[in-house]
Amino acid sequence: xxxxxxxxxxxxxxxxxxxxxxxxxxxxxxxxxxxxxxxxxxxxxxxxxxxxxxxxxxxxxxxxxxxxxxxxxxxxxxxxxxxxxxxxxxxxxxxxxxxxxxxxxxxxxxxxxxxxxxxxxxxxxxxxxxxxxxxxxxxxxxxxxxxxxxxxxxxxxxxxxxxxxxxxxxxxxxxxxxxxxxxxxxxxxxxxxxxxxxxxxxxxxxxxxxxxxxxxxxxxxxxxxxxxxxxxxxxxxxxxxxxxxxxxxxxxxxxxxxxxxxxxxxxxxxxxxxxxxxxxxxxxxxxxxxxxxxxxxxxxxxxxxxxxxxxxxxx
Length: 315
Hints:
By secondary structure, the protein is of the alpha/beta class. The protein has two domains: 18-201, Class I glutamine amidotransferase (GATase) domain (Rossmann fold); 218-308, Alpha-Beta Plaits, CATH 3.30.70. Helix content is 40%, strand content 24%. It is built from eleven helices and 16 strands. The strands form four sheets. A seven-stranded mixed sheet has the order 6-3-1-7-8-12-11, sandwiched between helices. The protein has a four-stranded antiparallel sheet with strand order 14-15-13-16. Helix 9 (233-247) runs antiparallel to helix 11 (285-297). The chain is elongated, with a radius of gyration of 24 Å. It starts with a helix and ends in a 7-residue tail after the last strand. The model is unreliable at 12-23 (pLDDT under 50).
């Protein structure tokens, strides 16, 4: 009987251990906390406390020197010392980025070009980012919301969807190198997922993002073969290059390639998670642009092939 009780306790301890985030990997990591006046006080203080207790080295980065003042739900709150002016901050000196919310704080930051560039640099480098409440405003401004699943304060739903993201009503949403939450009540879940994400090595983050991209890409595809009229090859090439910003606005298009196959032949290959995404693309701006200029540029009508993707490998 005693042995059964002992085994039960060991099993419970093992289960609890497995549910805890791997915080050991956070120790010594340098985390930038980007904020300015009007940050929601609890959304900076509590995540920072969790990071500090886990052994991370946090620094408040701000376009404002000296101190910044928090917002405590309905009134002004405490001040926080700025550890590093934004003009001196280098993204390459940090391992991760944390973005607290508050209405005023991210609204001011998205109007600061250097703040937007700072945020974008973390996404470009594939470094982990944590954002809560209204913080995704700055992510939108950095053009880093496209194709993402993001939780936020509900009033940002339309902004995120217009930016090409999928808004989710979850206490903590992890999408690749980004973890996001809706509101102060989500902070316990936000902290837990933030610590787990920040603990991952760069290699583990790259692998996780590659797996997610592979899962998205293994769906359906289109291959379009184009033949330019004599002398119009350069115009077709320019048309394909101009399609990239248009397709970037399509959240259901996983990947898109404009290709030159020969002297006068060109192609488009794009992938989608499912047929609804493929149909949306066929009704989108790129398809309309090709249709409008078909008689002028192409020797014959484009040949469109629908493809089922069975397997794929991404970097």
